[in-house]
Amino acid sequence: MASVEQAQAALNAVQDAGSGRSLIELGWIQQTRLVDDRALFRLALPGFAQSQRDRIAAEAKAALLALEGINDVQIELEQPSGGAPIGAAGHGAGGQGQLPERQAIPGVRQVIAVSSGKGGVGKSTVAVNLACALAASGLKVGLLDADIYGPNAPTMLGVADRTPEVSGEGAQQLMTPIETCGIAMVSMGLLIQENQPVIWRGPMLNGIIRQFLYQVAWGERDVLIVDLPPGTGDAQLTIAQAVPMAGAIIVTTPQLVSLADARRGLAMFLQMGVDVLGVVENMSVFIPPDAPDKRYALFGSGGGSRLAEEAGVPLLAELPLEMPVREGGDAGRPVVLSHPESISARGFLALARQLSAAHLVPA
Length: 363
Ligand SMILES: Nc1ncnc2c1ncn2[C@@H]1O[C@H](COP(=O)(O)OP(=O)(O)OP(=O)(O)O)[C@@H](O)[C@H]1O
Prior knowledge:
This protein is α/β, with parallel strands linked by helices. Helices cover 33% and strands 20% of the residues. It has 2 domains: 4-77, GMP Synthetase, Chain A, domain 3 (2-Layer Sandwich), CATH 3.30.300.130; 111-359, P-loop containing nucleotide triphosphate hydrolases (Rossmann fold, 3-Layer(aba) Sandwich), CATH 3.40.50.300.
C-alpha cells in the first residue's frame, strides 16, 4: 500500500507544460491524503482553458493510479487563492493575485489573435490574408498589427506611406484606422518613420497596445484580427489579459525547431485561459512557379498536424510556399486579392470560411 509521501512524490513528477515546473512546487496540488484505496487531493489551478485543466487532472490521476494499492482518485477543484475563479473570464497566472477584468472593445464582436513561436514563419502573411479573406466573405474586419518592433502589415497591405488621423488629447485621444483592402487597420508601422528603430520597455509597449485596442475608432467589427509579435513576451501577455478573445491561431512551419517554439506559444495561451482555435501550417510544401504540379517538402512534413494532435486542437490549414504569396506581400496586395485562384489564396479563403462558421456570426 502506497504512503502519502509516495503519492506526493508521484504528483511531484506531474509538470505544467508551460513552465516545466512541478504542480506541487507551483502550489496547484494541495492536501494530498489517502483513505483506504482512495487518493484525494485538492487541485487549485489558475484560469486555464478547460482542455488544459482536464489534461492536468488526468495526468495527476494517472500518476496516482500507477501506485500500488491505489484504485480510485478523487479530485477537489479549488479556486486559487487571490486568482480569478476557475472557468470564469479565465485569466490569471498562478498565485499572482487578482488581475483586472478583461474589457471588451466597444463595437468589436470577436477578437482572434494570430501568433507564432518564432519569427519568419509567415504569421503576418497569415494574419493579413486571413483578414482580407474574411472581409471578402462580407464580414466587417479590423486588423491590429501588434508586432510593435517589426510591423510588416502596412507594407503587406500597401499603406506604409499613410498616417492615421488622431483626434483629442491624452486619454481622450482617438485614432482613425486606415481603410484598405476592405479592412480597417492600425500598426506601429504607420506611426514611425521607416527604418526608425523602436526601443521600448515593457510598460510602454503595454501602453501602446492598450491604445491600439481601446483608443482606436474601430467602429462596428464582426472580428478584429490581432497580428502578435513572435514568441511569448509582453505583447502576448498584455493582449491575453486585456481583452476577451474567441481564441488564438498558432502559425508554424513543418520544421522541428519551429515546432518547439510553437509548443511554448500554445502552452502560454492555454495557461492564460485563452482558447487555441487551431494550428496553421505555413510553407508546408514548395510549389515551383515553373513546375506547378511538383511539390517539395523544403521544411520537412507533418509538423503542423503533430502539434495540433498533441494539443487536441484542429489543424486548420496547410498552406504552400508559393511565389505569389511573397510577391503579394512585397507589393502590398495580399495573395487572396492578387491571385485569388492560387492554391495559397484558396487555402486562406477556406481557413476564413472555417473560422467564420465556427466562431463568427455577422451582425
Ligand atoms: N506561404 C508563403 N509562400 C511564400 N512566401 C511566404 C509564405 N509565407 C510567408 N512568406 C514570406 O516569408 C516572409 C516572412 O513572412 P512573414 O513576415 O509573414 O513572417 P512572420 O512570421 O510574421 O515574421 P516576423 O514575425 O519575423 O515578422 C515574407 O517575405 C513573406 O512574404
